[in-house]
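Hey, does this match?
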Amino acid sequence: MGLHIRLFGSMCVSLAAGEPPVPLGRTARSLLAFLLVHRHRLHARESLSGVFWGDASEERARSCLSTALWRLRQVLEPPGVARGSCLVTTPTGDVGFRRSPDHWLDVATFEEQVTRVTSRPFHAAEPDHARGLEEALALYVGDLLEGLYDDWALQERERLRSMHVESLVWLLRYHGYFGAYERAIGFGQEALRCEPTREEVHRELMRLHLEAGHRTLAARQYEACRRALDRYLGAEPADATRALYESAVRPAWSPVAGGPPATAGAGELVDHLSAAVRRFEEARGELQRVLELVSSAAANASPVPKRVN
């Protein structure tokens, strides 16, 4: 038997892939989740009792732990399954989760793949590394153990969320380095949805837009950066970000003054044409509203009396 367990999003435990989830009470689920997240070591009973029943007496806490472990064994190691195939108990009473190739855990797969790939420089990586990292990110369907707000869970949730964002940034830089601008920008935008104040990511996206010939999109990225920093931190963009905007992003021409330079790239020309079309539509709509107001005013105006001689 190989357990199939998901901890990202809502916790789901099955005795095998494709099997329905097994029923677990709240305390048993929390205890199992703790053992799974900290699967690389054994835990003293006193330590577990303090984490989950710190407000109870020592005797009461140990009794509650024993009951929770018994209930877990009833579900995870039913008749026919060897005792200790999932939960380990040492002669001294320490408790842990038995790691085995038969068991599948989304968090374990995620951590192993992310660590393996992001430990190498993105410019020296192979396509297989990027694909493996993207597969690991697909496991991150939500934050760790959504709905559980114990202190240890909050700490681990933030750690894995940070790994998720750093993986997105690694893929942004990898694809950008090899000229896959659209994919790189997609990963960068996803990273900013998670952490909108990551200013270095905003700068990376500005540079990618410029390299792709889209100066208008680079300018919009600068504005998005400025708004995010102001909203969440009450701060202005750093000197490096402003310098990039002033030197490379700020348009060097005005549509009123004569249009784009002859050296403008195809992407930049498309951006300028799109902006011009939008301005034309806005002006036409405004003109239509003014004409409607004039027509309405004329229809409602009182007739001018004739002069009597």
User: Anything to note?
Assistant: The radius of gyration is 30 Å. Residues 230 and 236 are 6 Å apart (CA to CA).
